[in-house]
Amino acid sequence: MKKLVILVSFLMNSALGLADVIVLKADEWCPYNCAKDGEDRGYIIEAVDEIFKEKGHTIKYEVMNWKRVLQEAKNGKTDGIIGATEAEASGLVLAMEEDKKSGKPQSIEQGINHDCFFAKKDSAFQYNGVKSLESVIMGGIAEYEYGGDVPQYISKNKDSKKLDIISGDDASEQNIKKLDKGRIDVYLESEYVFLYLAKKLKQKNVITSEFKQVGCANLSGEKERIFIAFSPVKSQSKAKEYSKILAEGWVKLRESGKLAQILTKYNLKDWK
Fold this sequence. Notes:
By secondary structure, the protein is of the alpha/beta class. It contains 8 helices and 12 strands. It has helices at about 1-15, 45-55, 65-75, 150-155, 170-180, 190-205, 240-255, 260-265; strands at about 20-25, 60-65, 80-85, 95-100, 105, 110-115, 115-120, 140, 165, 185-190, 210-215, 225-230. The strands form 3 sheets. Strands 2-1-3-12-6 form a 5-stranded mixed sheet, with helices on both faces. Helix 4 links the parallel strand 8 (about 140) and strand 9 (about 165). The chain is elongated, with a radius of gyration of 22 Å. The N and C termini lie far apart (about 55 Å). Mean pLDDT is about 90; it is low at about 1-15.
């Protein structure tokens, strides 16, 4: 009996030894990844928690300045980062799957980003290039890197009353409130961020208006892909192992309908 207890104890300790605490870092970017201890953690955090928990691992999510996040990934001071574009993820390891048509490996994104214009539901405005902005007052965020020709328009008209560009940690929320009150006609924001925040503000009765998307900054319709990227240079890095778990888990989460369920909570739909 004593030998059996020792054997069971050994097997339990061995199994526990296989469980990793995986540190993922990012700057706060709700609804992708939200405040660390907030009401909503972000759909990527919820999805990745689900995927790695099934393999016995624990995700430790940390929030810090994005520039520092990228440096820590390149220097091997974190297991991975959340919310990287393909360019930012250069040199890091992404989740990959085999393309069904070509048979070649392709990266699996954990989200997309699209800067789009939003207006009240009864607005007649439709964005079809920066020339169309001359008829409206546009709200935006200072130092935000917008797509298309919008940055040139902002630079050219920075002192114009047709622009209302603000800064601050709650700039997105403030702009939606301005749109609700009619102080601006259109607001340019990351599509996912707007849809999430507008829903939260409506639920809290902070705003009353209904909104609609009236065009996007990149007229080609091309969307920026967003990734979880693992650091291959961290001491005893398991980047390839983690990326494989993420790839297989993300496909499974999507096929089971669980991903759609998580996205719905954030007022989003699966981009696929």
